[in-house]
Design a protein that fits this description.
homodimer, alpha/beta, Rossmann fold, five-stranded mixed β-sheet, about 15% strand, globular
């Protein structure tokens, strides 16, 4: 169960109410017309789960694997990585997931050193099938592990890509297994498509429940509108020039990759030129409590009032540990938590920080998970995706394109045509 | 060697020149009067290195250790963690460093499971000696590993704290070894004090060269003013209401913790109420290339012009790997990098992204390390500390205090007095 609380110090006026109605209508339209495909993934991806489970249970190569190597970058890796980070401690028996993302040679070689080909499955993930980092790392994998694409090794490779993509043609050519990504699902919205579901299912996570949690959020939203979501989106869209940043303060170490996923989802979707030609978009930032309340909090408290803060809290941690009732000579000042647990401490810190931030007049909202489990994670993913779509609709932008990242790609190609040092 | 390039599209006017002169004078004053002690650490901490090395080489307990456990949070851990992350791949023989920071029970228990008391040294680090997270984790360590504070176990404990602090009295009481932190060095400026130097030296890093790199930056700055630093600080201070965020885009996976260190240094130092009572301060953000150029870059390119971007690049990686000259059927489109190396690719991506961002009129500067080594890291640390002090001086704030984090601490204490659920 997740509870959502808004303490924005803001009341939606008529204009905001109109925006909400319009944006909700937009999302209904997007869903019906297939403008964005992610709304349907919680239902549609169930089939993928059963197919992958059936395939894996009868496949000897997979049965012998203890590592799922994901070759992908950005939207092709961050979602599965976030879910893996959140659930790992609950699944000690899950297959290790290893992400080859950054084209950093030191990073790649360090990860290669931990991979045994005979116990690994390689998932190469790219929507277009031409992502230069992913394809370069894939080639390095082929070379380093002596993978014979036309021999037995091809059973250790699975591709996840758009139908008809270059990568799709490649795997057809070699008879390599592939899963497709719906055309209308962009990378950053793809965690519940084959992009996330295939690797997570192969690792051994309960992706059915993940999808069920997501489905419940989609249903509730389209049936009952989830007013808190509409109001939060309206607040952000209306006030983005004042509150230019939304800081996600997540109070559990395992939420760090989720915060990164949120940053990419929000940043790439909402940083746009709107239909009037204006550059718009609030900036997302991810921070981890209680570590970052020892630093970044100062800026939130006394710096300019240009931020809103979202507190993400977990009521009950999977394991807990008591703060022993030990009295250390001279350091009794911190004994006030003795006999309590770390679960209590970190949550009390979250609450105390939230109250201190509110006292400074910073707009705050809270998302409280009763625990970290598949259903809650599924819901949380959908919550953020819907929030992004709503905010995008209210900002009058195209939430689903990313024209701004193309220029750099073109310059890169030209650089190599001239020679990388020329 | 590090090179610094500014492409800010901005020319310092007379007012900015005055600010620079004044701020430089401020730092000279701070150094002479001991307002901030970090200026002297590159010289003063040399003694600590030799003392620690002598102590460690003759100490049997340490000789048998393969793990340095750092118990500390925020400024007490992030600096050493950043240096460890950057240097680790060059020191395969260095002792493992483990950071117990966040009071998250799952995180703590996972780390406990990897610790063997007989091969571990526990460094408890807190300036005040009363940090509730650190003291609570320290108590959990004592309890979990059955540490007898009055027996042989006390040789596995070292405290790092302010002279006269509660923790200082505690270790005196038990005859436990301690290193002190100069009173005029705040947590976020403390990486080159005993806070960072003791654990890093114990781990086996060449901290002498780290300090030498830092010393060279201090000398060059106070002798020759390093104009690029003054101009960058003036640009940020003058334009912070326009360019509200500085995004550090670091192109190497191992720079991620350094980016976090930068975020805490900058955020906690510069987010303040100035002497006229105004809330001021630019917001720092850390991103990793090329991963984040697949997402956050969109916001930089087409979102509002409220960011400046700093590109941090490493010319020569410690290891490299060729992108094999393999032609994969149907995916020739990415073959333009074949035969080049990943070192070339990631840097060409950095350059291409920088050029595309500049083309959009975003103020950009670049910091280029010829390689990641101790001397460059030391210089880079000082560069950022000086930049922070200069910017703070120009913003007319107290760069070294952090009153904004105190309220939450008081609320926390009250919460527990009432009971954490009350």
């Amino acid at each position: 169960m997740i509870t959502y609380d808004l303490e924005l110090g803001w009341r939606a006026d008529e204009e905001a109410n109109e925006r909400m109605t319009e944006a909700f209508g937009n999302l209904v339209y997007e869903r019906e017309k297939g403008v964005a495909g992610y709304y349907n993934l919680p239902e549609d991806s169930k089939l993928i789960v059963s197919e992958v489970q059936a395939f894996a249970s009868s496949n000897e190569v997979i049965q012998k694997c203890d590592t799922i190597v994901v070759i992908g970058i950005g939207g092709s890796s961050l979602g599965a990585k976030a879910v893996d980070s959140m659930l790992r401690h609950r699944y000690p028996g899950a297959r290790r997931m290893l992400f080859l993302e950054n084209p950093d040679p030191v990073d790649i070689l360090e990860k290669f050193a931990t991979i045994t080909k005979e116990r690994s499955l390689f998932l190469v993930i790219s929507k277009s099938g031409t992502t230069v980092e992913t394809m370069s790392i894939f080639k390095a994998v082929i070379d380093h592990f002596h993978i014979d694409l036309d021999g037995d090794d091809k059973e250790r490779i699975i591709a996840i890509t758009d139908e008809g993509s270059a990568l799709c043609h490649f795997v057809d050519h070699h008879g390599i297994k592939a899963y497709t990504i719906p055309h209308n699902v962009g990378g950053r919205f793809s965690v519940l498509s084959s992009v996330g579901i295939v690797p997570l299912t192969l690792a051994g996570y309960d992706t059915c429940t993940l999808l069920a949690g997501a489905a419940s959020m989609v249903e509730r939203f389209f049936d009952a509108q989830e007013e808190h979501l509409l109001i939060k989106a309206a607040f952000i869209a209306k006030n983005w020039e004042t509150y230019r940043m939304n800081v996600l303060f997540a109070y559990a170490t395992c939420l760090e990759d989720f915060a990164k996923w949120y940053v990419q989802l929000w940043g790439e979707s909402l940083g746009k030129i709107d239909r009037c030609g204006n550059r718009v978009g609030p900036t997302p930032a991810g921070h981890i409590g209680s570590v970052d309340q020892h630093s970044f909090l100062q800026l939130v408290m006394q710096g300019p009032r240009d931020k809103s803060v979202t507190f993400l809290k977990v009521e009950r941690f999977e394991k807990d540990l008591e703060i022993p009732d030990i009295r250390l000579e001279h350091i009794q000042k911190s004994d006030f938590v003795n006999g309590h647990t770390f679960n209590e401490l970190i949550n009390a810190e979250c609450d105390a920080t939230r109250r201190s931030v509110m006292k400074e007049g910073v707009p705050v909202d809270s998302i409280t998970l009763d625990r970290i489990d598949e259903a809650n994670i599924g819901e949380l993913i959908l919550y953020y995706e819907l929030l992004t779509s709503l905010t995008g609709a209210m900002l009058h932008i195209d939430t689903y394109d990313q024209p701004g990242v193309e220029l750099g790609k073109r310059i890169l190609v030209k650089t190599f045509q001239k020679g990388p040092n020329g």
